[in-house]
Design a protein that fits this description.
Elements (H helix, E strand, L loop, with lengths): L6 E5 L9 E8 L10 E3 L8 E2 L6 E2 L11 E3 L13 E3 L5 E7 L4 H4 L15 H5 L6 H15 L5 E6 L4 E7 L3 E6 L5 E4 L7 E2 L6 E3 L3 H7 L9 E2 H5 L4 H18 L24 H8 L31 E9 L9 E7 L8 E4 L20 H12 L3 H29 L5 H34 L12
Antiparallel strand pairs: 1-2, 1-12, 2-16, 3-6, 4-5, 7-8, 8-9, 9-10, 10-11, 11-14, 13-15, 16-17, 17-18
Helix pairs in contact: 8-10, 9-10
Pfam family, one: Peptidase_C69
Protein name: Dipeptidase
InterPro entries: C69_dipept_A-like, Peptidase_C69
């Protein structure tokens, strides 16, 4: 049932350059292109009755009875497999990203198997959670309640943020779960494995379902002599982890702290980490767009052998379909605190756009349609990425210039808009922010068209199919 494999990055408010909490994730798919969109879900649009498309799990109306909040969503636009809301920020500036595909082991699956029928999954979690929570901790508790009541058919990790806290939750088997608060001065990188390691039942900053500690003891699941390491107890440590998951975390750790060291295949890289500097939006943009630059493992690089370049799975790849950074700012008025940085398509060839979430609509170019349409930024980015991949040495610099230009222009529009918000609230504030989002979307769309034109111009004489009497 699972079609997405991702890379999550979480940063506490005291670890960021501007004091904001940030949670980010690339939403990756498989061989089939999965068009993603950007939508605003108002209370009137929120389902009052809900049934999962994949599992046909029906949700009791009592669990949807609370008046929903407005929220942003980044869904699969076809709707064929459900909503798959992916990420958003609600009207109380609470952010949620769901989900990160993670691993498990046969021991827990033999005790509490994933559901073969019914249950919730990635298609459901944002829609059933984000409009009903008023803090990051609320998000953890609601997901825990839903998992215990309805169960799940897949292993997932998800994150929540508000002004003060960042929490990360992982599902365990069919009905159990664990969650940990990220320290304010720390960051986390979570690839497609069970990530939470050190865990303390009953201690502040750690939560789990009430039955989990006894389950670990009853079935002798803990291989360690002291303490609880949830990755050791419930996770995997496989060859696939060593080549598919661990190297992504290793690259991010060494980017945030060059003294981190280690090897790409290391299985016990820590969950909670500290950078050697404060982390910026641009830092997260870079690592979510990375492909092992300046190592022998870069598919576009000059250092490695052909075999080395295919050894490890990079963060950025052709299967990036949507990537977001959900930022809850602490140095601005509430009306502009929530910002959903968003980009579509392969991350090495696109640019993030900082969309305000206190709005009354989303830009049309980001409301993707399911068919190829160059008026939609998703499809335009797919085109530039596939062309850029044919000759990265030529097109990579063009893309880098495009990205720097786009980020600078978006920052400028954002700074100007932040200044104008003083004294505005309600519809006036929403109208201002909606117009700013449109301006940024239009600017990045125009820049992407310009990039495509520059790529065509530069690539004209690189064609294989050419013939000249002077050759």
């Amino acid at each position: 049932m699972k079609k997405a494999e991702c890379t999550t990055i979480l940063v506490g408010k005291n670890a960021t350059i501007d004091g904001s909490a940030m949670i980010a994730r690339s939403e990756d798919g498989g061989r089939e292109i999965i068009p993603e969109g950007f939508e605003l879900i108002t209370p009137e649009k929120q389902p009052k009755h809900y049934e999962s498309v994949i599992s046909h799990q029906k949700i009791d109306d009592e669990d949807l009875a609370e008046k929903p909040l407005r929220y942003t969503s980044a869904p699969d636009v076809s709707g064929e497999s459900g909503i798959w809301g992916a990420a958003g920020i609600n009207s109380e500036n609470v952010a949620m990203t769901a989900t990160e595909t993670i691993t498990t082991n046969a021991r827990i699956q033999g005790i509490d198997p994933l559901l073969a029928k019914g249950g919730l999954g990635e298609e459901d979690f944002v829609t059933l959670t984000l409009p009903y929570i008023h803090s990051a901790l609320d998000g953890v508790k609601r997901i825990g309640y839903l998992l215990e009541k309805y169960g799940t058919y897949e292993m997932n990790g998800m994150a929540f943020a508000d002004h003060d806290e960042v929490w990360y939750l992982e599902t365990i088997g069919g009905h159990h779960w664990i969650a940990r608060r990220i320290p304010d001065d720390a960051y986390v990188v979570a690839p497609n494995r069970l990530n939470i390691d050190e865990f303390h039942f009953g201690k502040d900053g750690f939560l789990a379902d009430d039955a989990l500690e006894d389950l670990i003891k009853e079935f002798h699941l803990n291989p360690d002599r002291e303490g609880y390491n949830m990755r050791h107890i419930f996770g995997s440590s496989t060859i696939k982890d060593a080549h598919y998951n661990n190297p992504r975390a290793w690259f991010v750790h060494n980017y945030f702290d060059p003294e981190f060291g280690g090897k790409p295949t290391d299985q016990d890289q820590p969950f909670i980490c500290h950078a050697n500097r404060k982390i910026s939006i641009e830092d997260i943009c870079f690592v979510e767009s990375s492909h092992y630059q300046d190592t022998p493992f870069d598919p576009y690089g000059d250092q490695g052998t052909p075999e080395q370049k295919k050894t490890y799975r990079p963060i950025a790849l052709n299967r990036n379909f949507e990537t977001h950074i959900l930022q809850v700012r602490n140095d601005v008025p509430e009306e502009i605190a929530g910002v959903q940085w968003l980009c579509f398509g392969p991350n090495t060839f696109n640019s993030f756009v900082p969309f305000y979430t206190n709005v009354n609509d989303t830009p049309a170019s980001f409301q993707t349609g399911p068919k190829f349409d160059l008026n939609k930024i998703f499809w335009l980015n797919k085109l530039t990425a596939q062309l850029g991949d044919t000759n990265f040495k030529v097109y990579g610099e063009l893309e880098n210039d495009f990205e720097q230009k786009s980020l600078a222009q978006c920052h400028f529009i954002q700074h100007e808009t932040d200044k104008k918000i003083a004294g505005l609230s309600g519809k006036e504030a929403e109208d201002l922010l909606t117009a700013a989002n449109q301006k940024m979307a239009d600017q990045v769309y125009s820049n992407t068209i310009e990039l495509l034109g520059n790529m065509v111009t530069e690539g004209h004489n690189l064609a294989t199919l050419k013939f000249d009497l002077l050759d």
